[in-house]
Amino acid sequence: MVGEHYAPGILATFFKVNNQRCFGARRKRMSTALLETDVVAALRAADRNEIFVHELYAALQQPTNLLLLDVRNEEEFQMWRIETRHTPETLHLPYFFFLEEEGKAIEQVKERVQEGRPVVVVCAKGGASDYVAERLREAGVYAINLAGGMVEWGDFYDVRPVTEQPDYRLYQVDRVARGCVSWVFISKGEAAIVDPLRYGERYVKLLEQQDAQLKLLLDTHAHADHISSGPELAKMTGAAYYLHPYDAIHP
């Protein structure tokens, strides 16, 4: 549904709760995030050689001594890279450098790391970085491969509770790599989503976990870097979909 009318009362409640709670969400996120030392300790204890994007994201919620080693080509690296509120030191050494001059490449990494300092190796999909991480471990560097690489990082959604009360729950859904945020408000088994992000199945999964039925979708804006799953979700669920008339004419 596209129209100029105000959305139903569930949204009025959402905006009231959001205004009261959004800054508290940041404080809660910082206090409950998994510490980098805990992440690394868990990986060591499990004898794991890879880290998943949700684990890396948790580790980067505070200043960290991790070294990110990005082995993609120069063009890809300059186009986009891992950046967070606390972006760690990043070293860019293309994969072909390790193939052609492995010794020099490894020495450049060793110059940047103290004994025991973890290195997270990143490539596009996790294949080249896995190879480099293995070479580094053989040279005595504690190197961990980022599983799925930048593809997985780009698709990662962080779902965090802003508030969970007996009568309602509010979640912030953040597509970290794109800087896009949406909101899911649930009350009495019904849900509203504000600015749904690209992948609608992520919301379907969340609502299934919360035993809630989607009733309302609202896109506050539409532009090139905000690809909405609103139309898709409306078609899938029958939920009402609200969009500014101008955005409906000029998507």
UniProtKB/TrEMBL annotation:
InterPro entries: Metallo-B-lactamas, Mito_Persulfide_Diox, Rhodanese-like_dom, Rhodanese-like_dom_sf, RibonucZ/Hydroxyglut_hydro. GO terms for biological process: glutathione metabolic process; hydrogen sulfide metabolic process. Signal peptide: none annotated. Keywords: Hydrolase. The keyword Hydrolase applies. Residues 62-164 form the Rhodanese domain. It comes from the Bacteria. SUPFAM superfamilies: Metallo-hydrolase/oxidoreductase (SSF56281), Rhodanese/Cell cycle control phosphatase (SSF52821). GO terms for molecular function: hydrolase activity; sulfur dioxygenase activity. PANTHER family: BETA-LACTAMASE DOMAIN PROTEIN, PERSULFIDE DIOXYGENASE ETHE1. This is MBL fold metallo-hydrolase.
